[in-house]
Structures are given as structure tokens and as C-alpha cells.
Write a structure and sequence with these properties.
The protein is 46% helix and 17% strand. The chain is an alpha/beta fold. The termini are far apart.
Length: 360
């Protein structure tokens, strides 16, 4: 087990990478929570891991109950957050009663949002079971739900008290979900760590075969990078914006596809377009978008809007990009690579150049 600490003063917490699910009760017991615990999950994950989690919590003297939310991004809504609130109220949960998010990014975001809102804040613990959730959404405290007009437009910054990652869960993950998670790992290489990017180029087969050493390395390094960024800028006042590389176009892809495009697939497309925009803006040489696109393609991820059926118009994309949490005074901030391992956050980009890229 490897421990990465997110340093946020009184809100600091540990990320336990490689801990078994059976350690959850013991680790939560150290945090002096109330006894009543809700395990928010979806039917697929509940069938695989629900009983193991309930057993470890019961062994640690928690009174745990499952709360199921349907599987899919389309269920990350206020209606399903309200269903969680109803379950908590019916069972008389109080302010010391923790919520456990057992699942992928949808479950983590929804559970964190519910925890932030219920009684103005109850503790919650992240137990991510997908690669994407392990390297991205379970760490950093961004919680939220979607609105028909935009992804993650309703939410709160609310940190978990603990993140526990059992890497064995990745063995039951469908291949397309594993690949989706790789998009976020590639992102960390582009924005922060050239050596990680190089490692991903050289160790593709070992990583996709889930070899313990290479897989553990990329997860640990991704968590270290995100923990470092979040510790410096918890609420996205400056530095943390770099974590949105690929997400401006990516969120538009997700919304316009009615969430049939997975988050990682959408971000992969967004990273390609952002890197090409950076090159056209003169921020990087042609080798940067070429390497990024080649690596994304090597991990079986889409690199073009042409995969969307039907393909939205350029106007639809531009309109959707404007509905973006990162916009300031009506101008969207793009995260654009200047070289592998370094990016710039800028509102000074050419709409005409973006239109040309989207039209190609």
C-alpha cells in the first residue's frame, strides 16, 4: 500500500493506493465517525463488491446500509441526489453519519454532492472502483451533478475524509472503461510530468495488461500530481485550472452526445483539439500535438469529433463551449500545452482558429 497525502490543513486526508477493501472498516474507524453509514453505489458495483464492503464496515461496528443509484452519467442529477437525501432522512442519519461512495466517477461526484448538502455537510469517503475515478474524480473535492444545459454545473468543493483504492477492482473493469481512465492519466503527463508521458509511451502493453508495477506507478504518480495541485489551489483560483486540459471541448462532447460518450473518451478528443489549437496559436511546435494524438490513439481512445453520430454543427459546439464553469466575463479559458509537461491557461485564443479545427 502506498499513501499519498492531500495537504489542506484541517481538511487534509490520505489516499490509500493498493489497500484492500477489507481495510475500509478499520481505516474509517480511526476517523471517529457516527455508526450509521450509507454505502452509495450502483447495481453493477454493488453486485461485485457491496457485500465485502458491508462486511468490513459491520466488523468495525458500523451500521451500514446500501443506497443504489442506476449506472450511468445520465443519472448524475438533482433527482437522484434527492433520492439519496430521502434515504438518509428515512433512516435518521445525523451530522456524524458518513457516506461511502463505492463506484466510479458518477457515484463519487453524486455522493460527495449529497454529503456536502445533507445537514449542511456530513463526512464522506471515496472508494473508487474505476481507473478514471482513482486518478481523477475521487481526489480533490470537486462534487456535483449535471444539468441538461451543462455538465457539473451544480456542485460544491467538498473534500472526502479518506480515499481507499483497491487496485484489484480494475480486474473486473470493462476494457472501454479502463481506456477511458487512461485519458486522465495522459492528461497529467501533458500538464505536469514529461517523464510520466514518456513512461506511458514506452509501457503501453504492460499497463493495458494490468501489470502491477507499471499500473501502480501511473496511478500513484497521477494521484501525487493531483494532490500537489489541489494542495496549492483547492478552489481553482489559479493553478488548479490546468487540470481542465481537454475538458473544455470534452464537456461539450459529453453534453451534445447526451452522455453516450464516456468522460475519458470526450476528454481525449478535447486534448487533441486543444493541442492543435495551441500549435495554431504559436504556443508549441508541431511535434507536441502529434505526440499527444499518437499516444491517445495508441491507448484506443478517439481523437476526432468524427466519431459522433450525428455530428453536431460547429455552431452547436461553440454555443456549448460558452456554457462552461471556467468562463470569465463571457470568455472561456483554454488550457493549452506549450510543451509536453507544461501548459498555459489563457482567455486569449482565436475563435476563428477553433472554428476551423472543429470544421475539419
Amino acid at each position: 500500500m502506498h499513501v499519498v497525502k492531500v495537504e489542506l490543513g484541517a481538511r487534509s486526508y490520505d489516499i490509500l493506493i493498493g489497500a484492500k477493501l477489507e481495510k475500509l472498516g478499520e481505516e474509517m474507524g480511526k476517523l471517529r465517525f457516527g455508526q450509521k453509514t450509507a454505502v452509495v453505489t450502483n447495481p453493477t458495483v454493488n453486485k461485485l463488491y457491496g457485500q465485502r464492503v458491508l462486511r468490513t464496515l459491520t466488523a468495525a461496528d458500523f451500521r451500514a446500509m446500501p443506497v443504489e443509484v442506476p449506472d450511468g452519467e445520465q443519472y448524475k442529477t438533482l433527482d437522484w441526489a434527492n433520492a439519496v437525501f430521502t434515504a438518509l432522512l428515512i433512516n435518521a442519519f445525523d451530522r456524524r453519519s458518513p457516506l461511502v461512495a463505492l463506484g466510479g466517477g458518477v457515484i463519487g461526484d453524486l455522493t460527495g454532492f449529497a454529503a456536502a448538502c445533507y445537514m449542511r455537510g456530513v463526512p464522506f469517503v471515496q472508494v473508487p472502483t474505476t481507473l478514471l475515478a482513482m486518478v481523477d474524480s475521487s481526489v480533490g473535492g470537486k462534487t456535483g451533478v449535471n444539468h441538461p444545459l451543462g455538465k457539473n454545473m451544480i456542485g460544491a468543493f467538498y473534500q472526502p475524509r479518506l480515499v481507499l483504492m483497491d487496485l484489484d477492482a480494475l480486474k473486473t473493469l470493462p476494457k472501454e472503461e479502463l481506456l477511458s481512465g487512461m485519458a486522465e492519466v495522459i492528461k497529467y503527463g501533458v500538464i505536469w510530468d514529461r517523464e510520466l508521458f514518456d513512461f506511458l509511451e514506452k509501457n503501453r502493453e504492460k499497463i493495458l495488461n494490468l501489470e502491477e508495477g507499471p499500473l501502480g506507478h501511473i496511478i500513484r504518480r497521477s494521484c501525487e500530481i493531483k494532490a500537489d495541485v489541489v494542495s496549492k489551489d483547492e478552489r481553482e483560483g489559479g493553478l488548479r485550472a490546468i487540470l481542465n486540459f481537454g475538458h473544455t471541448v470534452g464537456h461539450a462532447v459529453e453534453t451534445l452526445s447526451d452522455y453516450t460518450s464516456r468522460h475519458g473518451e470526450s476528454v481525449a478528443i478535447g486534448m487533441v483539439y486543444a493541442s492543435k489549437l495551441a500549435h495554431r496559436a504559436g504556443l508549441c511546435d508541431a511535434r507536441v500535438p502529434e505526440r499527444i494524438e499518437n499516444l491517445i490513439n495508441a491507448y484506443g481512445l478517439p481523437t476526432s469529433l468524427s466519431v459522433m453520430r450525428p455530428r453536431p454543427t460547429v455552431t452547436q459546439f461553440l454555443d456549448m463551449i460558452q456554457v462552461d464553469k471556467k468562463a470569465e466575463a463571457g470568455k472561456v479559458r483554454f488550457v493549452l500545452p506549450t510543451k509536453i509537461g507544461q501548459v498555459a491557461v489563457t482567455s486569449e485564443w482565436s475563435e476563428q482558429q477553433l472554428q476551423e479545427l472543429l470544421a475539419e
